[in-house]
Design goal:
By secondary structure, this protein is mainly α. The protein has 17 helices and seven strands. The chain has one domain. A hairpin with a 6-residue loop joins strand 3 and strand 4. Helix 7 packs across helix 9 and helix 13 runs antiparallel to helix 14. 47% of the residues are buried.
């Protein structure tokens, strides 16, 4: 048992969930749960009426964009069923049981296979090394009397099955995209879906920019985050049905880059129409008032429109490398935090204060993670910092990296980030050995989208099903290129899926 004590109001390591709490007056209404229940049937309808690639993308992306955040069904011994796990499980069962397709989920890349196994099984050592509960106690006055304040339960074998199933469901978009979206048609379909999704989502986003973020409250009966954080520069930032306004801004950035990639490859007579959509999405992104996503767009939009594929892939490799080794750089003091804060201060004092708050929290959470560096602290929010006398959270993890690092340690972190970086690395290996002549024109912008998402994960927990779809499609394309190099037949563009309609039930 780990015992944390404090005298008076002293702080002590501990943890709790960093997710926003839903009060009794701010709970999901029946419509929210009804939407979760009917989504598998919506997925079935998509597979019955659309080609498999398109149905796969829209089943997962539609759930991410339109299902209620935070609402979930909690059943014993299994992970919560929410807007991520329900679409993932639905498409897996539909393709497995309702189509003529034979699932081939195991990656042909040995490194990818090892990382998949490692990510799924990382829960085992984490659970086994966190069986002790964390008890918070307080010393009152001068008498040596301990008063229990709170307790975080230890993890047991009973928790193991839930965590393992949750890890597997998380990887479903990655594994399915690797099989079904790896050809040129699938990559283009994914970019087109990102663009179209951004155009569709821009309508409710513009509504909330003008009238305040209210759609989730009106439709699903609750607001999913702090309303104060949606207020910026005398106006509002849209959130719609996503966890935070930053998630929406990043999605708009992805939609903008996707539109630019499609515009570059469009026929000359149609290119101006696509550039109009690029301009429109750029305006929407600007109105989202997210400095990070705007900076991503300013950097990457000219590259997608103007630079060769090899430059785009090399920059994506830089992004992926920095994202993977970031904890090492932080621990070694090689990240110029003061210089970054000074640059942020020159742009906006509020943004600099927000960034400084993130860095301070990371320092505390890194110290906490250093106590169990290999396999982390596990679930129940054991990786966070709490006040020992009240149980209140003293630190809030923003970046995905620090959440995974503190929860699953180096083992889980390297498996997850390595699995996201590997697809870009495979494309980079092909570029080094064969050049960019045989690459699909869509794979370079896809690597940039994945790379910049990994960089954003250093600031925010923006690992979404769309990230896994992108990584899986790029991995599958990289595996096909590697197979083509070994066999001496380099023409992946011809190895596209059949466009025949699949039988669904």
């Amino acid at each position: 048992m780990v015992i944390c004590t404090a005298k008076g109001s002293g702080a002590s390591p501990g943890c709790a969930s960093a997710a926003p709490d839903l009060s009794k007056d701010n709970m999901p209404n029946p419509v929210a749960y009804l939407m979760l229940l009917i989504w598998p049937f919506i997925c079935l309808g998509l597979f019955r009426n659309l080609p498999l690639q398109r149905a796969l993308i829209w089943s997962i992306m539609g759930g991410y964009l339109f299902l209620p955040p935070l609402a979930e069904f909690n059943l014993p011994l299994v992970p919560a069923f929410d807007k991520v796990s329900i679409p993932n499980l639905s498409v897996l069962l539909i393709i497995w049981l309702g189509t003529n397709e034979r699932l081939q989920l195991w990656p042909s890349s040995r490194i990818a296979a090892l990382l998949v196994v490692g990510l799924v099984l990382s829960a085992i050592p984490t659970v086994l090394t966190n069986s002790d509960p964390i008890l918070f106690q307080s010393l009152h006055g001068m008498e040596p009397i301990l008063f229990p304040v709170d307790v975080l339960p230890g993890q047991s074998i009973r928790d193991l099955g839930s965590v393992l199933i949750g890890q597997i469901l998380t990887l479903v978009p990655f594994l399915l995209a690797r099989q079904f979206l790896a050809d040129e048609k699938g990559l283009r379909e994914l970019l087109f879906a990102f663009m179209l999704g951004g155009l569709v989502y821009s309508l409710p986003a513009l509504f909330e920019i003008r009238f305040s973020p209210q759609l989730n409250t009106w439709i699903y009966g609750f607001f999913q985050h702090s309303f104060e954080q949606m207020m910026r520069d005398g106006g509002f930032r849209p959130i719609v049905f996503l966890p935070h306004a930053l998630w929406l801004a990043l999605f708009m950035c992805i939609a903008l880059l996707s539109a630019a990639a499609l515009a570059r490859q469009a026929p000359i007579l149609d290119r101006w129409k696509m550039l109009l959509w690029v301009g429109y999405l750029a305006v929407v992104l600007y109105l989202c008032k997210s400095l990070a996503s705007q900076a991503y767009a300013l950097l990457l939009l000219p590259m997608v429109l103007l630079t060769p594929a090899r430059w785009q892939i090399r920059l994506a490799l830089v992004f992926a490398t920095v994202a993977v080794i970031y904890p090492v750089l932080r621990n070694a003091g090689l990240v110029p935090l003061d210089a970054i804060l000074a640059q942020a201060e020159a742009i906006s004092a509020d943004r600099a204060q927000s960034l400084g708050y993130r860095f301070d929290n990371e320092e505390q959470l890194l110290a906490r993670a250093a106590e169990k560096p290999w396999f982390g602290w596990g679930g129940w929010g054991r990786n966070l910092i709490r006040d020992a006398t009240s149980g209140n959270i003293l630190s809030v993890p923003d970046g995905r990296w620090i959440i995974v690092f503190g929860t699953f340690g180096w083992f889980g972190y390297l498996c997850e980030m390595g699995l996201l970086a590997l697809p870009i690395a495979l494309i980079g290996v092909h570029l080094w050995r064969q050049g960019d002549a045989e690459l699909s024109p869509w794979v370079a912008p896809m690597t940039l989208i994945l790379g910049i998402t990994m960089m954003d994960m250093l600031l925010n927990a923006t690992l979404t099903p769309l990230t896994w779809l992108s990584a899986g499609a790029i991995l599958g394309h990289g595996e096909r290129l590697a197979t083509a190099r070994r066999t001496g037949y380099l023409h992946p563009k011809g190895a596209e899926m059949s466009t025949r309609r699949r039988t669904v039930f």
